[in-house]
Specification:
28 strands; 514 residues; disordered N terminus; 14% helix; Jelly Rolls; 38% strand; elongated; 3 domains
């Protein structure tokens, strides 16, 4: 091609569109991320980008932005490159550019997004190690026996191995989505992302999603769990199964753990397996045995990060992060409250988050994630995060003061449907620098964990005996164990103190006599 037809380096239509939008300042956020990705990974894209910006700058200088036409020259043209449909910029009025590579390098360095040192203040969270299958969460002052093969700190990733608990309660969140609450004294083997083995003690196991069973074996028994159940070895070493919801298949096993004939499926009932006779017999369902292991509200949480970290999971991190910045430095947080055991209507519901570190003051917001959008704490990433609806609350975080926002209507809707409330916590406005918030996560210290605070409406009997606006508000210290004594405050019942069972981020209260 003659000098009058000199062309830019070859580029595909997508790159042309992205670079043109960048120059015209119409680049959307997803397009900006795409351009950044291509410039980082493709040498040819960088060459085209440099040449385009260099030419654009010189044309702007010649015309001072007044005309697309240089005096005494042919017009600037954008035309297809033959049959391929690629475009070329044609010009004839520009003098020899000379040393284009050197000049372009300067333009390139100035026009790429600048990641200043202030963006490096974005917190780093621990990344899930290869081979981990679960996360350990400290729930109630655990004391560990010698012989525990895995880490015992809350928020620790677990590889396959044995947990020997002398006393207290711990939670094990499996990658497959199931959760186990283990009460000491107990000996439990974390075997795989969807299974474990109970050698001693008792536990509750719960499957989060239908179609994703969890398997727990015991000496002489094997279970296939599709719901929520309690398992224990009684004083005689007999396995017992108590099914609270869904269905559990219980089978006797031989010495090698292979299932034997005589198994049965159990729903809303109890059974024990005779390890000698290999028989499954019925026993009364006994929820009281597992009272400490059945929280009223279960919480899942995780932060996600974009850019090079978009495929990484931070589900076991002790903090949750919110930041809206340039690609590679943005964070969002997701929360889910399982309300399966909440009884009765809610008069008021508030989410409480505890900031543990705040950079510059910034606005945060919350939006509801539809129940059809499923996600797992140990698998969610920026690439797989669920979509969310419109904003339901905003607040400005400027210091370490607890944040509370109302979700009463959302809790009522969840209680009337699938009993799950899932939220996206994010920063609606981009703000570079040290504008970020770290909140405590459920894997961190108990006093900093997310909470759902529910004010229960008085039941029908209470409404007859007390003022019509009587409400019961439950308050507690954030790190008391199971069970604890809590103050119950309500018009007409001041001063009464009732035993309440702490259950994760909510509470369960006994029936009151009148």
């Amino acid at each position: 091609m003659s000098r009058n037809g000199t062309s830019l380096p070859p580029a595909d239509d997508e790159l042309w569109t992205l670079v043109e939008a960048f120059v015209e300042r119409t680049l959307a956020e997803d397009e900006r991320r795409r351009l950044d990705e291509r410039l980082r990974s493709e040498a040819a894209a960088r060459i085209f980008y440099v040449a385009y910006l260099d030419l654009h700058a010189q044309l702007q200088w010649r015309t001072r932005g007044e005309s697309s036409r240089v005096a005494g020259s042919a017009p600037l043209q954008v035309a297809p490159q033959g049959a391929s449909g690629r475009r070329r910029l044609l010009w004839s009025a520009l003098a020899a550019i000379g040393s284009l590579a050197a000049a372009a390098a300067v333009v390139f360095s100035l026009s790429l997004p600048q990641h200043g040192p202030e963006d490096a203040e974005t917190p780093d969270l621990p990344v899930k190690p290869v081979g981990s299958i679960a996360v350990l969460i400290d729930n109630s002052a655990p004391v560990w026996d010698a012989g525990t093969s895995g880490p015992t700190k809350t928020g620790s990733y677990l590889l396959p191995g044995r947990l020997k608990l002398k006393s207290g309660v711990v939670e094990i969140a499996f990658d497959g989505g199931s959760e186990v609450l283990l009460e000491g004294p107990a000996d439990f083997d974390v075997s795989a992302a969807d299974r474990g083995f109970l050698y001693r003690g008792k536990l509750t196991a719960r499957v989060a999603e239908p179609g994703s069973p969890f398997f727990v074996s015991m000496p002489g028994a094997a279970t296939n769990i599709e719901g929520e159940c309690g398992l224990l070895l009684d004083g005689a070493g007999r396995p017992e199964i108590h099914v609270f919801s869904g269905e559990v298949r219980a089978d006797p096993t031989d010495a090698s753990g292979e299932p034997l004939p005589g198994g049965r499926s159990i729903e809303n009932g109890g059974a024990f397996i005779d390890p000698t006779l290999h028989l499954v017999s019925t026993v009364p369902l006994n929820p009281v045995l597992f009272a400490r292991l059945r929280p009223e509200v279960r919480v899942s949480d995780s932060a996600v990060r974009d850019g090079p970290h978009a495929d990484e999971n931070f589900g076991a991190a002790p903090q949750l992060v919110v930041k809206n910045s340039i690609p590679g430095y943005s964070w969002e947080t997701f929360l889910r409250f399982d309300l399966s055991r909440v009884k009765g209507p809610a008069s008021e519901a508030m989410v409480r988050l505890m900031p543990v570190k705040v950079g510059q003051p910034m606005e945060n917001a919350a939006a509801v994630v539809p129940s059809s959008e499923l996600w797992s704490e140990q698998l969610i990433t920026w690439d797989t995060k669920p979509s969310a609806g419109p904003t339901i609350a905003t607040w400005t975080v400027a210091d370490g003061t607890p944040v509370e926002f109302e979700v009463t209507q959302q809790v009522r809707e969840a209680l009337a449907t699938d009993k799950r409330l899932s939220l996206r916590i994010f920063a609606p406005n981009r703000k570079r620098g040290s504008a970020y918030v770290q909140y405590g996560s459920r894997e961190g210290p108990a006093s900093l964990r997310p909470q759902l605070l529910i004010t229960a409406a008085a039941d029908e009997q209470t409404q007859l005996l007390r003022p019509a606006d009587a409400l019961r508000r439950l308050t507690r210290g954030a790190n008391e164990g199971y069970p604890a004594i809590f103050a119950l405050s309500s018009p007409g019942v001041a001063g009464q103190v009732l035993p309440l069972i702490r259950s994760g981020t909510s509470l369960n209260w006994p029936a009151m006599e009148h």
